[in-house]
Amino acid sequence: MSRQSPSKRRAYRQAHQEYIRAYRRAYYRQNKAKYLAHNRSYIETHREEVRAQSREYWRRHKDERQIYFRGYIRSLKMETFEHYGGAHCLCCGENHFEFLTLDHIGGGGAEHKRQLAVSGGYALYRRLKKQGFPSGLRVLCWNCNCSLGMYGYCPHGNIQVEKQQADVNNGHHPQQLPLFGEVS
Ligand SMILES: [Zn+2]
Ligand SMILES: [Zn+2]
Q: Nearest-CA neighbor of 142 among 78, 106, 97?
């Protein structure tokens, strides 16, 4: 191949962008095993460096990561809320996303989370999504949810106290403090 000027080579690359990309992809696919083996052995022999690099990477991209993560959680929660009656509190109608949470109808949230092996938070939302959003939950705001958990009723008076909770209250059993978590 005759030597070309850098500007000519650049022009060639630009004109054949798609072709070059496809060629590289095909080359990578053909040699994938070799690349992966090389990566693995590199990681094994440069463990500390790799760790330091990745720590540094995460540190430098902290803000982007937080923004991305927040966006991810938000869309996951919105999707979940939509499956449980919409993104508003069933009791008071609160519809600020930040104030909304899930409530286990009739209690049993702690037990359910134990079964799913999640501690709450977005891990619960992810698990629910994986399971195709099983029934038995509803959307409440934190206020209504906490009131229901702590007193067995919400002063708004718009929400039915489930039998299970009503029985507990009528029998004067000691109130269980609500879990300090995403879901009561
Ligand atoms: Zn509410
Ligand atoms: Zn309420």
A: 97
Closest ligand to the CA of 95: 1
Q: Judging by beta carbons within 10 Å of its beta carbon (0-12, 13-18, 19+), is residue 81 exposed, middle or buried?
A: buried
Instruction: Give the model's pLDDT for residue 118.
Output: 85
- Nearest ligand to residue 100 Cα: 1
Place 102 in a pLDDT band, splitting at 50, 70 and 90. very high
pLDDT value for 1? 53
Domain residue extents for the chain: 6-60, 74-170
Q: Could you tell me the distance, in angstroms and rounded to a whole number, from the CA of residue 70 to the centre of ligand 2?
A: 27
Q: Give the integer Cα–Cα distance in Å for 116 and 61.
A: 32
Distance 155 CA to ligand 2 centre (A): 6
Per-residue pLDDT for 178 more than 70? no
Q: CB under 8 Å to 174, separation ≥6 — which residues? A: none
pLDDT value at 100 more than 60: yes
